[in-house]
Specification:
This protein is α+β, with helices and mostly antiparallel strands and 244 residues long. It is built from 7 helices and 14 strands. The strands form 3 sheets. Strands 8, 9, 10, 11, 12, 13 and 14 form a 7-stranded antiparallel beta sheet that branches. Strands 1-2-3-7-6 form a 5-stranded antiparallel beta sheet, covered by helices on one side. A two-stranded antiparallel sheet has the order 4-5. Strand 4 and strand 5 form a beta hairpin. Helix 2 runs parallel beside helix 7. It is globular.
């Protein structure tokens, strides 16, 4: 096991769920997964011991899967329970939301009945800006704000989001989990290539048990249902058992 503490140099960034550290290699960073929980743009806060380690393990399994399927990602390896080694990337300040089933804000904002299966995967863009409350973006907003270089990059991001959705829907269906919706982030590696970054965990994914419809994600915290860690552990168990 790598000596993670000696690998970590400067703290580059601390967010709601992770700390990002530089390393001696300018092309590699370390993400440290935290146990903190936030919801509603930071208005609701808590902590769940062991949550960070679970998200690291789940993200590792999913990044490995997507890498094998030809999706370019920042992932290199899991270093220990709470640390992941990954490529350095400049974050594109667009949160990419992919929706398969209407729930949450889509239901609130557009009055689409909760649980409605959408006729196609809906891809939305939000501005990654906490101070503004992560507002919705259209393509013209993205170009005016210079979040991307041109329209073709937006089309590439949409294409990759839909491809990832298809892969993960099937992956989870084999494990009796329904992929309802999820958030992705992309960035540019040191060569300027757009790659998938951040994490792939129940903090960013809505997952329902395919039989009971039970929530297996951070909605358990948002809605005060309890049992978040148990749900995350079950997601990890199904992922690992499905890989045997």
């Amino acid at each position: 096991m790598a000596d993670v503490q000696s690998m970590k140099k400067s703290l580059i960034y601390e967010g709601k769920a992770k700390k990002i550290w530089s390393t001696e290699d300018e092309g590699l960073y370390i993400s440290e997964f935290k146990d903190d929980l936030t919801a509603f743009n930071g208005e609701k806060k808590s902590s769940e011991a062991g949550k960070g380690a679970l998200n690291n393990k789940i993200s590792t399994a999913l990044f490995n899967y997507l890498n094998k399927k030809g999706i370019p990602t920042h992932f290199v390896e899991m270093l220990d329970e709470t640390h992941m080694l990954h490529k350095r990337a400049d974050v594109i300040l667009i949160e990419v939301i992919v929706r398969n089933i209407a729930t949450g804000s889509l239901t609130r904002n557009l009055a689409i009945e909760d649980g409605t299966v959408l006729p196609f995967a809906l891809v939305e863009f939000d501005y990654k800006n906490d101070a503004l409350g992560d507002p919705k973006l259209n393509d013209q907003h993205c170009l005016i704000l210079k979040l991307v270089n041109d329209q073709s990059e937006l089309e590439y991001i949409r294409y990759m989001a839909r491809k990832i959705n298809t892969l993960l829907k099937d992956f989870y269906a084999e494990r009796n989990l329904t992929l309802v919706d999820f958030k992705l982030e992309f960035g540019r590696d040191i060569n300027g290539n757009i790659i998938l970054i951040d994490e792939l965990s129940p903090d960013n994914f809505r997952l329902w048990d395919s039989h009971s419809g039970e929530s297996m994600d951070k909605d358990r915290f948002r809605q005060g249902l309890g049992g978040l860690k148990v749900a995350y552990e079950e997601v990890l168990t199904r992922i690992l058992e499905g890989d045997k």
